[in-house]
């Protein structure tokens, strides 16, 4: 499952993550363990995936030997994750002058979810417990010493984390004092000393976003009023008062990304907005005058929502703008980045590349290169000598010439909307044969979209001769607010029509064997799998529901404390269960109440500690179907959350899934 996050309003980003709270207990396993299929039942599925295949599951889903390279701020060290014999990904630091390598961070039972450099001598990393998403922030020296949990509180998670350059401090937001709301703290990442910076006093109308400048000063915040209105406040530098500068409906975007520190005007910032346009665009904005200075960039078809600026060494100038169009697009702005961009394009042609790390002087850049057929390669680029050095091919066993093409598609929905998406075609389909199809609706569903690039899932399926269809149905992000809004209160209905119309389009192109079509997805995609088997039971041969919602009513009831301020939004995105008419619709599109319509085989997969989709969602559908004599293989991992992160679990999942598809395509 690929879930991509984009910049919309703070509320939209938060709500895009909602798929609800985990059920945990110190005394018993989550959910109903008696429902889980035996190991032998699941292992039997593997036997159906027969064939003389060049590639196996491990080739796509075993972790790379090394990954996540980062350069230290002073350019003297290279850090990276390296996998050991037990598939643990520890963080190592290499002294570039001496070649000495030190194990800095040790991954034990729980995954190191992210890591990076705090300064030239200290690293940070984040970690939760078995996928529960209560993330803690840790810091350690580059030799692994002086390890500190900077947020050592049970049942608490962090939100924003912003390093204050050239100091020993980081600003972190967390729900320490009230589980429903987040407040900012300034933490010394050497000593662990902590100071609260601001109070979030009204849980009914909470602050849901904070704006800090590069020096760690609070300059603004957004309040979510009555769950539906976003009010943006900005600090007057003369009076010290926070003045209201914008009041917007939650569906609209006015998001302050960062200050323009290249300007002498200290009130100037880069803002993403669609208040006077359908597509999100980037503008320079004077926050004190509450006025647009000028438009920086816009696109007539796609939302634009990302800028990258230089550091202190180049006076924080704007380097480039980027957005997801049909492919990832980068618009170079600064003379420095125009030169870098031109050089890299001459080296890599039509492949995608991203600068993922640099030292403070931009003398060394770490670049990742990928495409639909290339998993990824890390390069070091010396901006003075203009020389590139290959650091690592992440998946050297996957040969580009053997990988499948990911082709952008566009079609009209039954009610006239232009729908975009992608289809990954195995060689047989390109050569004119009709092949089995796996339909893969994305998660979210709102504000999320599928992108072009290497996708291990679709490539694995292609290795078995299967095409994969990914439809950016209405409510998907990136195509403007009108398109996204058209999917609200259409989950399970018109959003599913778009998926079905995509299948019909793929059939019409001659790519697909209409008698061998499966549907599979995670999160909302798991829900869409269930609804696909219900709404169009004759279209699909089988389905795989991975951490999907089965009952909108219990889904709403399982909101964790820190999602409760957003409940009114969720009502507008999904359905208002307090409204009798909408509650009726919600019941009609809750799969657990429509199980008599499920006629085709179903495989259900769940992480027991999932904080987004409670295990009860999967338990319900499995129990209900088995209650009517319908056998359902059910895989649960008790050390996972919303999607499997551990290598061994992922390998099992895809082996079982391939067998399940093969069994049902060959009946």
Automatic annotation (TrEMBL):
GO BP terms: proteolysis
GO molecular function, one term: aminopeptidase activity
Lineage top rank: taxon: Bacteria
Keyword Lyase: no
InterPro entries, per the entry: 6-blade_b-propeller_TolB-like (IPR011042), AB_hydrolase_fold (IPR029058), Peptidase_S9_cat (IPR001375)
Membrane-crossing residue ranges in chain numbering: none
Domain Peptidase S9 prolyl oligopeptidase catalytic: 452-666
UniProt keyword list: Aminopeptidase, Hydrolase, Protease
Keyword Hydrolase among UniProt keywords: yes
Pfam families: Peptidase_S9
EC category name: hydrolase
EC number: 3.4.14.-
Record-given protein name: Dipeptidyl aminopeptidase BIII
Species for this entry: Chryseobacterium aquaeductus
């Amino acid at each position: 499952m690929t879930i991509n996050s984009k910049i919309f309003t703070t509320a939209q980003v938060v709500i895009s993550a909602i798929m609800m709270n985990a059920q945990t207990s110190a005394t018993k396993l989550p959910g109903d363990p008696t429902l889980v299929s035996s190991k032998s039942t699941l292992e039997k599925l593997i036997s159906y995936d027969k064939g003389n295949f060049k590639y196996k599951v491990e080739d796509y889903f075993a972790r790379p030997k090394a990954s996540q390279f980062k350069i230290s701020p002073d350019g003297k060290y290279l850090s990276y994750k390296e996998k050991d014999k037990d598939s643990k990904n520890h963080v190592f630091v290499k002294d570039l002058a001496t070649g000495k390598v030190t194990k800095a961070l040790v991954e034990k039972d729980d995954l190191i979810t992210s890591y990076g450099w705090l300064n030239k001598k200290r690293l940070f990393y984040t970690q939760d417990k078995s996928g529960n998403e209560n993330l803690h922030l840790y810091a350690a020296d580059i030799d692994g010493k002086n390890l500190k949990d900077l947020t050592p509180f049970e049942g608490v998670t962090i939100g924003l984390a912003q390093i204050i350059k050239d100091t020993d401090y980081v600003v972190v937001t967390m729900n320490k004092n009230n589980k429903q709301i987040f407040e900012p703290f300034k933490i010394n990442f050497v000593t662990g000393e902590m100071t609260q910076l601001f109070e979030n006093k009204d849980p009914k109308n909470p602050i849901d976003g904070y704006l800090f400048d590069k020096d760690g000063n609070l300059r603004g915040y957004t309040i979510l009023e009555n769950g539906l209105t976003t009010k943006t406040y900005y600090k007057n530098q003369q009076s010290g008062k926070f003045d209201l500068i914008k009041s917007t409906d939650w569906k609209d975007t006015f998001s302050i990304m960062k200050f323009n520190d290249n300007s002498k005007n200290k009130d100037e910032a880069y803002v993403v907005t669609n208040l006077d346009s359908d597509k999100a665009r980037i503008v320079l904005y004077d926050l004190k005058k509450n006025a647009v200075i000028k438009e920086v960039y816009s696109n007539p078809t796609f939302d634009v929502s990302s800028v990258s600026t230089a550091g202190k060494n180049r006076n924080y100038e704007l380097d480039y703008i980027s957005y997801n169009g049909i492919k990832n697009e980068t618009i170079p702005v600064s003379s420095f980045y125009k030169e870098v961009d031109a050089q890299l394009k001459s080296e890599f042609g039509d492949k995608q590349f991203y600068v993922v790390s640099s030292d403070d002087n931009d003398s060394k850049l770490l670049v990742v290169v990928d495409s639909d057929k290339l998993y990824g390669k890390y390069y070091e680029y010396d901006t003075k000598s203009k020389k590139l050095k290959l650091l690592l091919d992440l998946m050297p066993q996957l040969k580009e010439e053997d990988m499948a093409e990911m082709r952008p598609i566009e079609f009209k929905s039954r009610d006239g909307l232009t729908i975009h998406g992608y289809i990954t075609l195995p060689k047989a389909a390109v050569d004119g044969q009709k092949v089995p199809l796996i339909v893969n609706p994305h998660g979210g569903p709102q504000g999320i979209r599928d992108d072009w690039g290497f996708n291990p899932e679709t490539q694995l399926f292609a290795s078995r001769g299967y095409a994969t269809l990914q439809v950016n149905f209405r409510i998907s992000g990136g195509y403007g607010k009108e398109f996204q809004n058209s999917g609200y209160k259409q989950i399970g209905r018109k959003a599913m029509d778009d998926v079905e119309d995509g299948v019909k389009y793929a059939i019409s192109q001659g790519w697909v064997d209409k008698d061998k079509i499966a549907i599979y997805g995670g999160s909302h995609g798991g829900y869409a799998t269930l609804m696909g088997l219900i709404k169009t039971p004759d279209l699909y041969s089988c389905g795989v529901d991975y951490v999907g919602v089965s009952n909108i009513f219990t889904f709403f009831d399982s909101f964790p404390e820190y999602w409760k301020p957003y409940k009114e939004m969720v009502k507008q995105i999904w359905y208002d269960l307090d409204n009798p008419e909408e509650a009726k619709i919600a019941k009609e599109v809750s799969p657990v109440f429509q199980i008599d319509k499920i006629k085709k085989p179903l495989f259900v997969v769940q992480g027991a500690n999932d904080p987004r989709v409670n295990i009860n969602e999967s338990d319900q559908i499995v129990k209900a179907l088995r209650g009517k004599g319908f056998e359902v293989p059910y895989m649960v991992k008790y050390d996972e959350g919303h999607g499997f992160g551990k290598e061994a679990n992922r390998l099992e999942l895809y082996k079982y899934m391939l067998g399940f598809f093969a069994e049902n395509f060959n009946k």
